[in-house]
Amino acid sequence: MKHSLRLETLANLYPKDAPVFADIGSDHAYLPLLLLEKDKAKRGFCVENKIGPYKRSEQTIFSSSYASQITLYLGDGLTPIKEKVDVAIFAGMGGETIRDILQKEEKKTKEISYLLLDIHGEEEKLYPYLSSLGFVPVDEDALWEKDIYYHPLLLKKDPLKWGVSKEDILFGPIMRTKKGLAYQKYVQKLISQANNLLLLHTLPLQKKEEIHQYIHFLQENL
Ligand SMILES: C[S@@+](CC[C@H](N)C(=O)[O-])C[C@H]1O[C@@H](n2cnc3c(N)ncnc32)[C@H](O)[C@@H]1O
Description:
Blueprint: H1 5-13, E1 20-24, H2 30-37, E2 43-48, H3 51-62, E3 70-74, E4 87-93, H4 95-104, H5 106-109, E5 114-119, H6 123-132, E6 135-140, E7 143-145, E8 148-150, E9 153-157, H7 166-171, H8 175-178, H9 181-198, H10 205-220
Parallel strand pairs: 1-2, 1-4, 2-3, 4-5
Antiparallel strand pairs: 5-9, 6-9, 7-8
Helix pairs in contact: 1-2, 4-6, 9-10
The protein binds S-adenosylmethionine (SAM).
């Protein structure tokens, strides 16, 4: 099966010493299958809380040769999972939803070694919480697909403390130093959006000044 660049990039970030995963929000279950296909993991759990996506996952899993390595649940977040997992995957969700799911099962969350995320906004609601749990970013990648920017991120439980900065939140904790073409296209897009705002004649002077400072901040991180 041909997978999207986003899913391939997520699979490439999957850590080496992590045989068991939980894919939370598993609509279609393509990523779990890809991980097993690539022999990145030995087995995993898929959890989906809506019947349509659950049925799609069921169809994908049971028409593959990996059905015996996956347990699929119709349920909420980490709740149905009864054993320790090495990696929890949250792809295609906002930061607040991910935080709420982890918070709801904090005891289980504390036993997870890695988080693999494809977070869709609201980083500011998630990163400080992850830092408080002892997660630190270890790798991140960036890509554009169908005109959407993605920055898949791998975090690991580590005694090192992650002091979350505003640059981590806006640019990505690893991407802001790693950079690269996809990242630069993203920052250029933010700059051009901010420049467009400056064209508004009705903009109050103070707001204009704030936007100039923001553009300067973006340029420093290009
Ligand atoms: C945008 S889809 C992403 C699917 C897949 N992970 C991907 O990245 O292609 C998000 C999925 O998460 C599911 N979801 C949202 N909240 C959930 C929760 N608390 N527990 C389980 N699944 C959830 C939604 O029903 C939806 O199918």
